[in-house]
Specification:
With 163 residues, the protein is of the alpha/beta class. The chain has helices spanning 7-12, 23-35, 51-59, 113-120, 126-131, 142-162; strands spanning 62-63, 72-78, 86-89, 96-98, 107-112, 136-138. Strands 1-4-3-2-5-6 form a six-stranded mixed β-sheet. Helix 3 packs across helix 6 (142-162). The N and C termini lie far apart (72 Å).
């Protein structure tokens, strides 16, 4: 058996001793746990933020990938309450939710859910968030992407205000 040097530990904590774990200590610990009902009931978890925005995203009309247009937007939400990537397309004049992942989106928007909520409720503009680096876009020329993303936000905002 190797021998360990505990002199530094002993010097630093010479007045602190390990408790003797015996039947009496285990009984006291068990009694405490039972009296406290093992910490139950636990406080309920807070509601996830901005679920109304998530509902508006899912509330856009759904289409199959066969009916998509050339513009396919991949939305990557980050932060509390976020959901996995969502895909949207604009086969006609308004945006629709694509019912399954698309192999190659033409535009990617990465944005915190809280920031998207501010856009949809009208307290900020998506262009400002992109300029400030709070949201990022990719997949096409920035000015083109910005215009397409702004159009998408306006559609989501309209759907949000209906509900």
């Amino acid at each position: 058996d190797p021998s360990f040097d505990t002199s530094s530990s002993t010097q630093a904590s010479s007045t602190i001793r390990c408790p003797e774990v015996n039947r009496e200590l285990l009984g006291r610990m068990a009694d405490f746990a039972l009296q406290q009902n093992f910490g139950w009931p636990k406080s309920p978890l807070p509601d996830l933020p901005h679920q109304d925005v998530i509902a508006a995203l899912y509330g856009l009309p759904q289409i199959s990938t066969e009916n998509t247009s050339d513009d396919i937007l991949q939305l990557k939400l980050v932060g509390p309450g976020s959901v996995p990537s969502l895909y949207f397309s604009r086969p006609q004049s308004s945006w629709s939710h694509v019912d399954r992942t698309v192999a190659k989106p033409t535009i990617q928007l990465t944005i915190p859910l809280a920031a998207l909520a501010r856009c949809i409720t009208g307290t900020t503009e998506i262009s400002g968030l992109i300029e400030q680096g709070q949201a990022s876009i990719g997949g096409c020329v920035r000015s083109t992407c910005s215009a397409i993303v702004a159009d998408w936000v306006n559609d989501v905002k309209s759907n949000f205000l209906k509900n």
